[in-house]
Amino acid sequence: MDDVELRRQLERAHADCFGWAMACCGRHRDDAEEVLQTVYLTVLDGRARYDGRSSFRTWLFGVIRRTAASERRKAWLRGLLLKREADGLEPEALAAPDAKVERDSRRYSLGYALAQLAPRQHEVLQLVFYHELTVDEAAAVMGVSVGSARTHYARGKARLATLLGDAREV
Amino acid sequence: MMDDSEIRGGFARLREADRERAPSFAQTYGRARARKSWRATLRVWPLVVGAAAAVAIATIWLTQARSFSRSAATPAIATWRAPTDVLLQTPGSELLSAMPALGTSILDEMIPLPSNRGT
User: CATH 1.10.1740 occupies which residues in chain A?
Assistant: First the structure.
């Protein structure tokens, strides 16, 4: 794949990649954008090469996931993660209210519920429901076996339903 | 218990919201390029500082070496006189520097006689 084609593919997948980067960065927009910038440079400079073994999007999601994990480790080393955690566990709950309060409140409750899940459960649900990947593709992105991904998917979905059901009752 | 379609709906709303606030590809890519060039500058910066420090140190060293050599200029050996030369000038040394003549006294040289005054 040449540079022009690579750039075109990245541009096409950009919105999707941003959503996945948001999920990988605990829904912190700035961190997600920084991760995405690093990924684009890594891909376009040839430091990460698409080998065609999976779909381009699946491969790119894997690169984003690894980059986000690496950035998280760096942030942890710098001691920023502790500060971020101390700032609050609901990253988006402090956003300014607007006219779409009803829709936002539902979104925030989903965001809150997702934050309560185990990281792998969160990832597999995000990949399947948000990005409409199959569980097999999600497993490839996450670097786990299909069986493991299915287990995370089933447990995560059950837990998410419980959390959202509880939130609705409240 | 919620069904899949409800969960899917929640994620669809989340996706829609993310798309609204997502930066454009050009924006993200442009920032990435800017960050890369900034990092390249940062990588070169220590070399620039190191080179400047080396030049500064060399300049100071050369200046000091030059001023030292100027102050400690070595005189030519022909004109050099030992500081202790003065000790060699003993009283009466002039008597030994000239050849003695017969029929004269060394006192003639030392004590002028009235006949020698030219009066």
Answer: 1-96
Beta strands in A28-165 (DSSP E): none
pTM summary value? 0.63
Around A17, how many Cα atoms within 13 Å sit in the side-chain half-sphere?
Answer: 30
**Token pair for B48:** 């620039």
Tell me if B13 and A110 make a contact (CB, 8 A cut-off). yes
Q: What percent of chain B has pLDDT over 90?
A: 15
pLDDT at A26: 86
- CATH 1.10.10.10 range(s) for chain A read 98-170
> Which residue is it, tokens 């919620």?
B2
The answer to whether residues B25 and A16 touch, using CB atoms and an 8 Å cutoff, is no
Q: Which residue of B has its CA nearest to A160?
A: B7
The pLDDT tens digits for B31-62 are 888 888 887 788 888 888 999 999 999 999 99
Binary contact (B14, A130; C-beta < 8 A): yes
Task: Check if B11 contacts A (Cβ < 8 Å).
Answer: yes
Write the CATH number of the domain with boundaries A98-170.
1.10.10.10
Q: Which residues, in sequence order, are CB contacts of A141 under 8 Å at separation 6+?
A: A58, A61, A62, A65, A123, A127, A133
Q: What is the mean pLDDT of chain B?
A: 81
Which 3 state secondary structure label does DSSP give B41? helix
Q: How far apart are CA B102 and CA A103, in angstroms?
A: 140
What's the CATH number for A1-96?
A: 1.10.1740
Taking chain A (170 residues) in runs of 10, the rounded mean pLDDT of each run is: 85 92 90 92 88 88 93 81 63 53 62 88 93 92 93 92 72
A143 touches chain B (CB under 8 A): no
